[in-house]
Design a protein that fits this description.
The complex is a heterotrimer of chains A (585), B (224) and C (248).
Chain A: H1 20-25, H2 30-60, H3 84-120, H4 128-147, H5 170-173, H6 177-206, H7 219-250, H8 264-298, H9 305-318, H10 334-362, H11 371-394, H12 396-402, H13 406-436, H14 442-468, H15 488-518
Chain B: H1 13-44, H2 60-89, E1 99-106, E2 109-114, E3 127-130, E4 132-136, E5 140-147, E6 152-156, E7 161-165, E8 171-176, E9 181-187, E10 200-205, H3 207-217
Parallel strand pairs in B: 1-5, 4-10
Antiparallel strand pairs in B: 1-2, 2-3, 5-8, 6-7, 6-9, 9-10
Helix pairs in contact in B: 1-2
Chain C: H1 2-16, E1 39-47, E2 56-57, H2 63-66, E3 73-74, E4 80-81, E5 84-85, E6 89-94, E7 107-112, E8 115-117, E9 120-124, E10 129-133, E11 139-143, E12 151-155, E13 161-164, E14 170-176, E15 184-190, E16 195-197, E17 203-209, E18 212-220, E19 224-232, E20 237-244
Classes of the chains: A mainly alpha (585), B alpha+beta (224), C mainly beta (248).
């Protein structure tokens, strides 16, 4: 990371060089912490993807030993054949690692950290040291989560949803310490998230530069802000539930154990009361980023900016009222099925509003299909599929058939991969120059995008059809069932597509690493964007702004008639001052 | 790779399937409109030298329309679904003359307790068989579900039946088979190492065959 | 600090490392101990009267197992042949000198035809118990001890072997398969090698004992326990008979 000798009016008063460990390891600079989260999360994305490849191998080719399976110990895959208990651990860890250690930190940890101070005109977060702790609690949480694979009984195997009583008593799964480690890790990660959320909320409320009114905030910041509120409210519920389950496992309480007067359904209510806001935590920042990128790519203001803000708030609010749709078949009172169906149907509306507004942004635009724009438009195209599949599951009688089938898996992956991960690719490719001062290779970026888009759809679209055929989730050997045997060919097709999808990510990894050292140097504003972050060097110095900017315009004033010499208008550009800043510099 | 649901063999399968197909058509239309729109915009509004984007911040009328239309549509689907849901899942939806069964789920089997020739559960002529559910055709059947250890989910795809069996909770599901034959039962909630082996079979008999079968079963002493 | 984290991580792996009860019985590594004596307690377990009927097992769902039985399978809970009772676990419970003791013979339980063979075994504390699968079906092996650490592992294919050991004496550790709920076996964990299981002919033999007076306990999974005092001379064999009958 470049540092400059520029004087800056930060609160630190430090202008001397920090030692390596304070600058890069225990940094309190939000930009460095953002990059730390990025590296950690990409690593977990890879591990979660490896788990998925093993799951797919079992489902596609159960009678062929896993390639490389000889490296795995006898307790996991003797002779390269996965054991059912290891398969259960893999599905558990795939979900857990992807949700908590990949997607959530990639969106909230990386871009919350990196973007918020820069885009609101602040020198850093409100609590830089708390920010450092947010990262350094996430890392041990990740290590604890992975350590489950190395203990007797193996890693947690009750699903990422960890339902009681299966997760409460090791004799049911053969997993003992692993199940406890899962809860400890989740609790620690929860602490990391809460620290981060506190910081984001405080920073957005208090540290906006003069002129950065609420309705001049870019939608990425709105989304991250609302997401942070969701995190602050939802994560403590998970932490509390995790502690209760941990006590059931270890000290003889019976919160979820009916033999002691407890209720298994209590776990589900607590988990999903957290879990549903959690999935909006996983998508809202993506939606915000996509708005920024689509406006930039279309060279047009976001269509319906105010509606977009209200839609974000609407999604966040309604997200608290729908948790029971995960429990329609759980034995919960069927009358609640009615109320949760209505609220779930309604939450489709603000998402639909957003989809139409993104289309409206592209309409009559002058669209540049740079790599971030390819990913952002793909987000819209794929997220809408995930949203529409949700309508089937929202209908309680149809959910009778689809609950716990691959139809749900298809839905999850269309919104989390087709949605969140494409948004993450858009965000990384868009802000990479600002983070690292270098441009990623655009040709490699396009090939990566194309292969990812094609193989993603080849992998997950057929899962809808598996679900229509009644194929259950988390099932080690579908061939046990006569009604699933006709779907074996589809399972093989999905597995091959998934392997190709995973392999294609090498292109992204290579682009990411090589560009860091060899990429073309990035100017201040390679995308000709309006955000405040593009008014400072790439990468920005410690303290970000040499002088606190004054915000004069909205966030998406592309193709404004006020500007003759360019099709964008940076938020802090003073049109009355002479001379005008040349475009792109 | 079909979007057609497999053949349904119970009375309310058709009601559930109907709602599925309505949603399929509605979401299919939305899918085509959005995807085609995206592709069309991508092509038509791609950057070309000398073009400028239209500077507009939105259109309130458009917002109202694309808020109202999805809202009305999903509410309608919800209302349509409510009646079927109530008749399938609520205690009051169980038909009056339903034949009672108890199915106790445990790792990794379904123990089916039959009411026996007297037709009442919890009497001396009850018998229990593992993993085989025998029912008469054209007769409503109510299955009272229990779970001994962890949560399992009683799933009969052909009948569109699914209901979790939860330790400590009394749940139930009813259905009426419309065809004789054998149909798969599966567990649809991860329940441990042997979750994948927790399959069973429901055999639907013609009425007289069923009575004969019940009479013969009550006398065997197999560890079933 | 990062280094501290890394070392903690490695230390954690090493400790929780998982081999504590997984085939960690160091039989081969320890020096063999010579027999403590040359006396033997031998005998039979008899069953007087009509033994209770063993239920038949409906294995129709598991064809690969069902086809191993020409006349259908029965669940061998009480196995009486010509008045002799098999599968009784007999062990010395007092009177022994202090250790170290010689090793007991290696023990393997096989899953064949969806039943455990043998049904009742004894192992020493720390001794490997091997479980093999001769069925081409998924079995899980779940141990539900009260004094030892439990385990629950699976063998999805024929030809697999899993090995476990126990750290604490316990009479008896039940083993069960949950895929085939009728499968039960029992493992007696003893801190010395002076135990035996009665065979199909009711006979058992415990050798290598020094001369002395011993308490001998017998255990059957449904018929209960018996106990007796036995005095055995140096180099001699003492014959005993445990008598079981129908439970009232």
């Amino acid at each position: 990371m470049a540092t400059t000798a520029m004087p800056h009016d930060t609160a630190h008063g430090e202008t001397h060089e920090l030692p390596f460990i304070r600058k890069y390891i225990f940094s309190t600079d939000h930009k460095t912490i953002g990059v730390q989260f990025l590296l950690m999360s990409l690593l977990f994305l890879f591990v979660g993807g490896l788990a998925a490849m093993m799951i797919r191998w079992q489902l596609g080719f159960p009678d062929t030993p896993l390639p490389g399976g000889a490296l795995l110990p006898e307790t996991m895959a003797p002779g390269g054949f996965l054991l059912p208990e290891f398969f259960n651990s893999l599905v558990t860890m795939h979900g857990t690692l992807m949700v908590f250690f990949a997607i959530m930190p990639l969106l909230v940890g990386v871009f919350g950290n990196f973007l918020i101070p820069l885009k609101i005109g602040a020198p850093d977060m409100a609590f830089p040291r708390l920010n450092m702790w947010s990262f350094w609690t996430a890392v041990p949480a990740g290590i604890i989560m992975l350590s489950g694979f190395f203990v007797e009984g193996g890693a947690a195997g009750a699903g990422w949803t960890s339902y009681a009583p299966l997760a409460a008593n090791g004799e049911y799964t053969g997993v003992y310490l692993g199940q406890q480690l899962w809860l400890l890790s989740i609790a620690l990660l929860g602490l990391s998230s809460i620290l981060g959320a506190t910081n984001y909320i405080t920073t957005v409320v208090n540290l906006r530069a003069p002129g950065m009114t609420w309705f001049r905030l870019p939608l990425s910041i709105w989304a991250l802000f609302i997401t942070a509120i969701l995190v602050l409210l939802a994560i403590p519920i998970l932490s509390g539930a995790a502690i209760m389950l941990f006590f059931d496992q270890t000290i003889g309480t019976h919160f979820f154990d009916p033999t002691g007067g407890g209720q298994p359904l209590l776990w589900q209510h607590l988990f999903w009361y957290f879990g549903h806001p959690e999935v909006y935590i996983l998508i809202l920042p993506g939606m915000g980023v996509v708005s920024d990128v689509i406006a930039n790519g279309s060279r047009k203001p976001v269509f319906g900016y105010h509606s977009m803000v209200y839609a974000i708030i609407g999604i966040a609010f309604l997200g608290w009222l729908v948790w029971g749709h995960h429990m329609f078949q759980s034995g919960m009172n069927p009358a609640l099925g009615m109320t949760f169906m209505v609220s779930t149907m309604l939450i489709a509306v603000p998402s639909a509003i957003k989809v139409f507004n993104w289309m409206g942004t592209m309409w009559r635009g002058n669209i540049r299909f740079h790599v971030p724009m390819l990913h952002a438009v793909s987000f819209v195209a794929m997220f809408v599929i995930g949203g529409l599949s949700g309508v089937f599951m929202a209908s309680t009688p149809v959910d009778i058939y689809f609950h716990d089938t691959y139809f749900i898996v298809a839905h999850i992956h269309y919104v989390l991969f087709g949605g969140s991960l494409f948004a993450i690719f858009a965000a990384i490719t868009f802000w990479y120059p600002k983070m690292f001062g270098r441009l990623m290779n655009p040709a490699l970026g396009r090939v990566h995008w194309f292969l990812t888009f094609v193989f993603f759809n080849m992998t997950f679209w057929p899962m809808h059809n598996l679900g229509v055929g009644g194929h259950m989730r988390r099932i080690y050997d579908p061939n046990q069932y006569a009604f699933l045997q006709p779907l074996a060919g589809t399972n093989r097709f999905i597995t091959i597509s998934a392997l190709l999808l995973f392999t294609s990510q090498i292109l992204f990894a290579v682009n990411f690493v090589v560009s860091w050292f060899k990429g073309a140097k990035a100017s201040h504003n390679p995308w000709e964007d309006n955000g405040l972050e593009w008014t400072v060097p790439s990468p920005p110095p410690h303290g970000n702004f040499s002088a606190t900017p004054t915000v004069l315009h909205g966030p998406y004033e592309f193709s404004s008639p006020l500007v003759q010499d360019a099709d964008f208008l940076p938020q802090s550009r003073n049109l009355d001052a002479l001379p005008a800043r040349p475009a792109g510099e | 790779m079909s979007w057609f649901l497999p053949h349904g063999a119970s009375t309310y399968a058709a009601d559930i399937d109907f709602i599925y197909y309505v949603i399929l058509v509605v979401t299919g239309i939305a899918f085509v409109v959005v995807e085609a729109g995206l592709v069309w915009f991508a092509i038509k509004y791609r950057a070309r030298p000398g073009r400028k984007a239209a500077y507009t911040h939105g259109n309130m009328r458009a917002e109202v329309i694309w808020t109202a239309v999805p809202a009305v549509t999903v509410i309608a689907i919800g209302l349509m679904s409510g009646g079927v849901w109530r008749s399938v899942k609520s205690e009051s939806g169980i038909p009056a003359n339903a034949l009672s069964y108890r199915v106790t789920a445990k790792q990794f089997e379904w123990n089916v307790t039959y009411a026996g020739p007297d037709g009442s559960l919890d009497t001396a002529d009850d018998f229990t068989i593992r993993n085989q559910l025998h029912v008469p055709v054209y007769r409503p059947v109510v299955v009272r579900l229990r779970a001994e250890d962890v949560i399992h989910s009683f799933f009969i795809p052909a009948f569109r039946v699914k209901q979790d069996a939860v330790p400590g909770l009394n749940t139930h599901v009813w259905f009426e088979a419309m065809e004789t034959g054998e149909f798969d039962i599966a567990c649809a909630e991860l329940c441990g190492i042997g979750h994948t082996t927790m399959g069973a079979t429901v055999t639907v008999h013609a009425a007289e065959d069923f009575d004969r079968w019940v009479a013969s079963q009550a006398t065997t002493t197999a560890l079933r | 600090m990062r280094r501290l984290v890394l070392f903690s991580v490695f230390g954690f792996f090493a400790c929780g490392g998982g081999d504590a009860s997984r085939g960690g019985g160091d039989d081969a590594a320890q020096a063999a101990v010579a027999p403590l004596g040359n006396s033997t307690i031998a005998g039979v377990v008899t069953f007087d009267g009509m033994p209770p009927a063993n239920a038949t097992i409906d294995m129709s769902e598991e064809a690969a197992c069902a086809e191993k039985y020409a006349n259908g399978a029965i669940n061998p809970v009480v196995t009486v042949t010509d008045g002799m009772l098999a599968n009784v676990f007999i062990r010395v419970t007092s009177g022994l000198p202090a250790g170290p003791y010689p090793h007991a013979p290696a023990v393997t339980i096989d899953q064949d035809g969806c039943l455990y063979h043998p049904r009742v075994v004894g192992v020493m504390v720390g001794q490997d118990l091997a479980v093999t699968n001769s069925d081409a079906v998924l079995h899980n092996i779940k141990a539900v001890p009260t004094q030892n650490r439990p385990f629950n592992i699976s063998q999805p294919r024929a030809g697999m072997t899993s090995t476990r050991s126990f750290t604490t004496p316990e009479t008896m550790v039940p083993l069960e398969c949950n895929v085939h709920g009728w499968m039960n076996a029992y493992v007696g964990v003893v801190d010395h090698p002076y135990f035996a299981v009665s065979g199909a002919d009711g006979s058992f033999s415990i050798g290598g004992l020094p001369a002395g007076t011993y308490t001998l306990d017998a255990w059957h999974e449904t018929l209960g326990t018996r106990t007796m005092q036995v005095e055995v001379a140096a180099g001699g064999t003492m014959s005993v008979t445990f008598v079981y009958g129908p439970t009232t």
